[in-house]
Amino acid sequence: MGVEGRYHLLNNEAPSDVQQVHELLERWSRLWKKNGGGVYTNAMYLEVIETAIGRRGTSKEGGVGTG
After folding, report:
1. Which helix (H) or strand (E) holds 19?
2. Which residues contact 21 (CB under 8 A, 6 or more apart)?
3. Residue-wise DSSP of 21-59
4. 4 pLDDT exceeds 90?
5. Checking CA distances to 43, which of 1, 8, 13, 50 falls within 20 to 30 Å?
6. Which residues contact 24 (CB under 8 A, 6 or more apart)?
7. In this predicted model, what pLDDT tens digit does every residue of 31-58 receive, in sequence order?
């Protein structure tokens, strides 16, 4: 699965560049419309949960800091 334009980079070294803010808001507006008025769908949530469960099942037992 690709990110399909669901990311946006801002140049922190150019805080006076207001165009990047306009681009961010335009991208957010398109995503919001595409998702039917929401930015985080139930399908997206379920995909994240399934991925997290899958990762948990493949990680080593004991967790961080155990040896």
Report:
1. helix 19-34
2. 10
3. HHHHHHHHHHHHHHTTS-SS-HHHHHHHHHHHHHHHHHS
4. no
5. 8
6. 8, 10
7. 888 878 866 778 888 999 999 988 877 6
